[in-house]
């Protein structure tokens, strides 16, 4: 079915219909434009959201927690999601909007041509019909005049009073009028035939061709809308797999959160290495002087304050220095965050971690500066070999500056390595876990007198450890020794002097009597690079004989077919422990 045959008389309605169709196409184009603007705005707001919630510099320390890492991954996926919305907007602009604009322009131009052609055909037919109407009116007038002339002639011929000349005149008029009527009749017949031929051609050929062309244009518009709707859906479906992967990444980020690991990292961050203060001994005032009682009470209170300071409130306590740094010692300058340069104001474990991080940072800077210096030296050699490439003296200043920076970094590295070495060599305080372990002898604490003092032969009691101090050593593997939280071998309690004299015998028997606390499996291979540590292979199972005391090392041993038992320290983060109940 075609418009040319079925709608031959609906020229005006077809013109209105095709106009409304193009307006509907423009309406769909506006819909896509509004959606494009929404997609663009949505993508921009997503990017702004991800940017606003990026972790700040002051929050970098919290990035080690799995929940924070998962949130950072979620922000990354949100950013990628925003990118996909931008891809949707760009594809809608390039594939849909431009296509609709081009189709709409083409349809308007073709419709205008068709309507112009149809208007010309309508005007041509109307002019032919007007000519036919005129020819018909002329024929009707000539026919009435001829009939009137015939009647006049008949009357004149029958009238005996008229002369022959008068009758002849009426006869001539009649003959002329009849001839005019015949001529008008012939002209009318010719015009009628011409009009009928044109009308038949108009309604059967010319106008149907115009209507069929309008039908093609309207179908092209309809087909275009179908393709554009499907294309918009294809644009959305093309990014759907990537959006699905973004959502999968968010799910994986959520599943990566490990509350136990975060709890362990909280312990690792804030663990001071100290133990809670021991019970305050009973002070019999009748057997000691008041001054020693007050001093003992003050020491206990001070010890408790040190423990709290080293854990919970360490980040909130600020050091009070002399006014304008004039009074008091400035031997240890403060860093930007208010800590001492050697971090001596931190608890032992935190101090060692800070120093190790600082050393790693300096080593990285030295490696970068060394690479830059080597590059400058190669450039200088090239310039010296071929002066046309450049002047070697221009590189000399940069080379000297690089050497100066490198020397300064090496000095700082040596300084912080010294800080770390001294931190590892400093004996633990009496309220530290290492000292508390060393205060155990035969499973009991060293006896105290009624005045609260220990059996200590040191006359100078300023910074000397008590009776367990002779066994105290650094908790790092370099010492090659470690104290166990299990009971120490021996018989009964003895003085500090007896304990020191029997130190060698104690360590000889300790290896034989220590019972394993559990087992551990190596998560990563470890090469022993320092004294007191032992190597291990990935997946190897060892016995745990001393758990981590806050220094990052665990004491383990393995069965050696040749030498009996191999014992030493391994990094706690390299193993997975399973302790006995």
Model regions low in confidence, pLDDT < 50 over at least 5 residues: 293-332, 427-511
User: Number of helix segments?
Assistant: 11
Task: Let me know the number of strands.
Answer: 7
Look at the helices and sheets and give the structural class.
alpha+beta
Bin the strand percentage: 5-15%
Biggest sheet: strands, sense, closure?
5 strands, antiparallel
GO cellular component, one term: plasma membrane
Domain F-BAR: 1-262
Biased composition (Polar residues): 291-301, 427-441, 485-496
Subcellular location: Cell membrane; Cytoplasm
Please describe the topology of this protein.
Blueprint: H1 3-6, H2 11-52, H3 66-158, H4 164-255, H5 259-270, H6 290-309, H7 348-385, H8 392-425, H9 433-438, E1 440-441, E2 444-445, H10 496-501, H11 503-513, E3 518-522, E4 541-546, E5 553-560, E6 564-571, E7 575-579
Antiparallel strand pairs: 1-2, 3-4, 3-7, 4-5, 5-6
Helix pairs in contact: 2-3, 2-4, 3-4, 7-8
